[in-house]
Amino acid sequence: MAKTRKDLRGRALRKGEMQRSSDKRYSYCYTDPLGRRKYIYANDLVTLREKEAELTKNQLDGLDIYIAGKATVNFVFDRYMKLKANLRQTTRSNYLYIYDRFVRNTFGNKKIADIRFSDVLQFYNCLLQQQEMQINTLESIHTLLRPTFQLAVRDGIIRNNPTDGVLAEVKKNSDHQSGIRHALTVAQQRAFMEHVANHPVYFHWWPLFTILLGTGCRIGEALGLRWEDIDCENRVIHINHSLVYYPVGESRTSVQHISKPKTKAGERTIPMLDSVQDAFEMLREEQLENGWNDVEIDGMHGFIFCNRFGNVPNPQSVNRAIKRIVSDYNATEEISAKREHREAVLLPDFSAHHLRHTFCTRLCEQETNLKVIQSVMGHKDIKTTMDIYAEATEEKKQESFERLAATWNVF
Prior knowledge:
It is a single chain. Strand 2 and strand 3 (37-42) form a beta hairpin. The chain is globular and about 90 Å long. The chain is 49% helix and 9% strand. It is mainly α. Helix 3 packs across helix 6, helix 5 (117-129) packs across helix 7 (166-173) and helix 9 packs antiparallel against helix 11. It comes from Gemmiger gallinarum. Pfam families: Integrase_DNA, Phage_int_SAM_3, Phage_integrase.
């Protein structure tokens, strides 16, 4: 246990407080937003505590710089993030990663009072053209910069938000399209799964990919599943948490944590297809033979998925496996297609999240009740389901018109 520091009268001192033995004066040490160590002094402890309260109340650690309009974008962004007290740790980590990577060392060093609409527009265009950034990544950056400038507007540091209307202008004048994750076609989906199932090295991935393609779970939701979340009697899967893997601390070392769904819609039950139940049975038999997963994460245990090191896999390892499988399949398929004088069915580059899109597309092809689709996918807004996840494949459009031609006798 850490020893409590006391003054010469035996009173406990708070963190940062001390009493000098030379002149008996009290001091309080703190770090301002620019990383500089500063001190405040008083002849007695009561006065020092009053100064500390005033420091906290008025946020004097940089207020003069802020009011004078000399603060940089970085300064205001850091201030904005400190005010987001209830932000989820995963979201906070993602925000900091995006900002630090694309903004902090360049645009972030500009003084916020000097920035105009054209400066923001030029910065966005530079990201799109020189760094070949996708428009959806730019949208994520805009999601951070706009409230940062808005905070300065509300504090009276600047009059107008220079980011207003910039993204719309960029989209209007840019050929970049929002990044849409296209679902695999039925042929691609079957080719991928058959290759995994029959491959001597990659076959152990079959249960996970079957569950992803048969439930539409997000990768974190699937990896976070425990045996108690599976109700084989009623053939349903309970989704009420997710496994997240994000960097923490100054070292940015990534660790696994359990996260609750962002919205109430994320907590749901998903009916279990036969193939999905078979996948769970395979995993159960494997753990019965090799031993149960004893990993504990944030108090939770009994996880279904386990890698060869005895740990729960992280999403990056799954995406790396997909990349290797796709590369192996395409190389084999090209040779086979040439030998058999047919057109090769090649797989595109995709991630685990594309499997969620693929499931949703297959579901939309069979199910017409939008509320059912929304519930299974765990979307708060039905617009998300229809605009982002569900896409009309060329095959289904053709089938739809063939049925229409056969039944719609109005000409």
